[in-house]
Automatic annotation (TrEMBL):
InterPro entries listed in its UniProt record: Claudin (IPR006187), PMP22/EMP/MP20/Claudin (IPR004031)
GO cellular component: bicellular tight junction; plasma membrane
Region (Disordered): 187-210
Record membrane topology: Multi-pass membrane protein
Compositional bias ranges of the Pro residues kind: 189-201
Record's protein name: Claudin-23
Organism lineage string: Eukaryota, Metazoa, Chordata, Craniata, Vertebrata
Chief localization: other
Family the entry assigns: Belongs to the claudin family.
Molecular function GO terms recorded: structural molecule activity
Length: 231
């Protein structure tokens, strides 16, 4: 049996979402701070959920491990992202393992309930990563920053957002396996018909007026009239 298209879509989107979310979680560029007063104009500060970095655009000299002087890491959106993003990654790995066991491409028949349960797990993992990403984006301009500087969205935040959306779409595609499972259960099961022993063909008539008097008694009788005559 061929693997259903919904399962294939789920198995393609979810690993891609996992990769994007992993890169977005680990890289320190959720927010970019540029044009900081009393700093070189080509100096850009990149803020993630784990560390702070600075980079000179002219020389591409990058320095990470900057001190958090403004209390950036103490903000609630950053703390929530630190907790939910790794949880989402672990849950996505678990969902992919369960999905692999449910789809079972090497077997003839996939296990639809298992694949549907994996879809629910992957859907939850996508929501877990989408919540901190959306919250951080909403509070992007409210987080501590040097007065007069320019704030912008970093590439890590964009990758995390895309990865969350792919995980949600892949999870929804796998949850469609529940529909296939319920469809099989609702299908009526007809019992096998009774077996008939071979014998002479029975003479049954749907209209009793088409049967002659002698034919009703079961006695052989030869008529001189045509079979389809109405006389």
């Amino acid at each position: 049996m061929r693997t259903p298209k919904a399962m294939i879509v789920g198995l393609v989107l979810c690993p891609c979402g996992l990769l994007l979310t992993l890169v977005g979680t680990m890289t320190p560029s959720w927010r970019q701070v540029s044009l900081v007063p009393e700093q070189p104009s080509d100096l850009v500060f990149e803020q993630g959920i784990w560390e702070l970095c600075s980079e000179r655009q002219s020389s591409h000299q990058r320095l990470c491990g900057q001190a958090d002087e403004l209390g950036y890491f103490k903000e609630v959106p950053v703390q929530v992202a630190r907790g939910l993003m790794p949880s989402s990654l672990v849950l996505t790995l678990l969902g992919l393992v369960v999905a692999t066991l449910g789809v079972r491409c090497w077997q003839e028949e996939p296990r639809h309930p298992v694949a549907g349960a994996a879809g629910l797990v992957l859907l939850l993992s996508g929501l877990l990563s989408l919540v901190p990403v959306s919250w951080y984006t909403h509070e992007l301009w409210a987080l501590p920053a040097v007065t007069g500087s320019t704030l912008a969205v970093g590439y890590s935040l964009v990758l995390s957002y895309l990865g969350s959306c792919l995980e949600i779409l892949g999870g929804l595609a796998l949850t469609l396996s529940f529909h296939r499972c319920c469809k099989k259960r609702r299908a009526p099961k007809y019992p096998p018909g009774p077996t008939r022993e071979p014998g002479p063909p029975s003479t049954s008539y749907s209209n009793p007026w088409d049967v002659l008097e002698d034919e009703r008694d079961g006695r052989p009788w030869k008529s001189t009239l045509p079979c389809d005559s109405d006389l």
